[in-house]
Description:
Blueprint lengths: L3 E3 L2 E3 L3 E4 L6 H11 L3 E5 L14 H4 L6 E5 L6 H14 L5 E4 L12 H13 L3 E6 L3 H10 L3 E4 L13 H9 L6 E3 L5 H10 L3 E4 L1 H4 L4 H21 L22
Helix pairs in contact: 1-9, 3-4, 4-5, 5-6, 7-9
Amino acid sequence: xxxxxxxxxxxxxxxxxxxxxxxxxxxxxxxxxxxxxxxxxxxxxxxxxxxxxxxxxxxxxxxxxxxxxxxxxxxxxxxxxxxxxxxxxxxxxxxxxxxxxxxxxxxxxxxxxxxxxxxxxxxxxxxxxxxxxxxxxxxxxxxxxxxxxxxxxxxxxxxxxxxxxxxxxxxxxxxxxxxxxxxxxxxxxxxxxxxxxxxxxxxxxxxxxxxxxxxxxxxxxxxxxxxxxxxxxxxxxxxxxxxxxxxxxxxxxxxxxxxx
Length: 260
């Protein structure tokens, strides 16, 4: 299978994982290892990656020498807040330009504020950030983000943390078919079959956190998600058979049957 390429770097795994909601850093690391993920996203406003030298840093458990750290702007509700947060992250990570932009519009449903997201994306791209962007599953706005210069567009499958799976596969197909950058489903995956469906649709990857961290056995679920991503990608590359709604097609040949 072709590898996922982001900002000129190739990755074997198409599963990207978050680091929140685990009971401790040890469980976080165990789940990430089981997932096979190479890209790990970190909420800069919620997790210590060096902002507080007196507290344990997540980077001790998930070192940048072993993983690509993807700082994100979870908890930001304006473009200005998101831009400031990622400028801080770039300083903390020694000039690391890769980032995940998300600007939320509502604290209850965590749906993205797309006008503010577009505004922040323009600023960040101009400042040299390599922006992966969480957004609504709107084909027009996804294309706008690509045209701004985002290196990956990340439409939601359903609301963050909902576990509802892909509620609008048709929009995802429109986005995928019209894109020249990787499309990575972000938010809403609940179990391995959701991840498989996303990959079968042609997504380039899936980013998830709650589905693993809130499973009864996070480490086992991480392993299941790894397999689901791989199966979905292989099925997409293989090309599924055509659906036939009004006629049957025997699996075995009918010519030369005994007694015919």
